[in-house]
Amino acid sequence: MFEKLNHVVRRYEEITQKLSSGSLGVKELQGLSKEESQLKDIVTAYQNYQNTKSQITSNKGLLAEENDEAMKELIKNDLKELEEKLQKSEQDLKLLLIPRDPLDEKTDIGPMIDEASAKRVESWIEEAKQKGAIVLCGGKRKNNFIEPTVLTQVTPEMKVCSEEIFGPVVNLIPFKKIEDVYWEINQLPYGLQAGIFTNDLQAVFHAFETLDVGGVIVNEVPTYRADPMPYGGRKDSGLGREGVRYAIEEFTERKVLVFNLRRP
Questions:
Q1: Burial of 11 by CB count in 10 Å (0-12 exposed, 13-18 middle, 19+ buried)?
Q2: CA neighbours closer than 13 Å in the CB half-sphere of residue 118
Q3: Contact, 19 vs 40, CB < 8 A?
Q4: How far apart are CA 247 and CA 201, in angstroms?
Q5: Contact 168, 147 (CB under 8 A)
Q6: Phi, psi values for residue 173, rounded to 5°
Q7: pLDDT tens for residues 136-150?
Q8: Residues 6 or more apart whose Cβ sits within 8 Å of residue 103
Q9: In this predicted structure, what is the pLDDT of residue 57?
Q10: How high is the pLDDT of residue 148?
């Protein structure tokens, strides 16, 4: 869901820039104006949500910091407003939830690699629901396609929290102390990447030093990667690193030549 929202925000900014350029034809002006009005409410709600104090993402899901009751209520209200705007944005959600060809540039969410994988994700969602989780968005499967799913009221024993789901599922988990979040993450047998949303550099470096993961991504979801970076995880998330330089090193077998330059 949050990757889609980032895409919506970028599209909204692109539209507003074009509209302010004053060099559009009548048809394009009408089309962009209509699209701007459709996206404005959801972008405003998303920006309100992003302005709350520290929010953390990781393989365990999206977590919102609750330092005191006022902050707790603020985050609760922002999340509620965002959920309402998402539900009202039928056109945007319709585009998001329709299975699309991965080769189509307009595709945001494609199918799982096979139906068995889709059924596994579906079963984990169902297990979470049976144990008390609430589905805010998505949660259904059609063949290989899993709707982008947002869950609340999840607990550590649920597979959606304790295993690597490798599917379009995110958990909303409130917390009071950031140290408790780091401890919970480090107890997992996995450690690919984590994402922290904050403008506090001290919090960034503290997360980097504390989290037992392969990478910490600031102000972006933890699935971010770029080819030049050493992408990989710790613990059961794998050995070694991907990336052009690092992949070449992994596939390189070193051979040693030693000279004894002293005379025999």
A1: middle
A2: 17
A3: no
A4: 31
A5: yes
A6: -130, 110
A7: 878 899 899 998 888
A8: none
A9: 44
A10: 86
> In this structure, are residues 78 and 71 in contact, taking their beta carbons and an 8 Å threshold?
no
- What type of residue is 248? I
Instruction: Select from 11, 43, 61, 64 the least CA-distant residue to 176.
Output: 64
Tokens 């599917």, located at residue: 167
Q: Which two tokens stand for residue 214?
A: 């392969």
Give the per-residue pLDDT at 42. 62
3-state secondary structure 94-137: HHHHCCCCCCCCCCCCCCCCCHHHHHHHHHHHHHHHHCCCEEEE
Is the pTM higher than 0.90? The answer reads: no
Name which of 191, 161, 197, 165 is nearest 75 in CA terms: 197
Which secondary structure element, helix H or strand E, spans residue 6, and what is its range?
A: helix 2-21
Yes or no: say if 126 and 139 are a contact pair by the CB < 8 Å rule: no
Instruction: Write down the residue that tokens 């998330």 correspond to.
Output: 237
Tokens of residue 97, six digits = 């939830």
Pairing verdict, β 169-175 and 61-65 = parallel
**57 forms bridges with which residues in the sheet?**
62, 195
Ranges of the chain with pLDDT below 70: 1-13, 15-100, 264
Tell me if 50 sits within 8 A of 197, measured CB to CB: yes
Residues in the chain: 264
AA letter at 223: T
Euclidean distance between CA atoms 122 and 32, whole angstroms: 37
The whole-angstrom separation of Cα 226 and Cα 135 is: 32
Task: Give φ, ψ of 16 to 5 degrees.
Answer: -65, -35
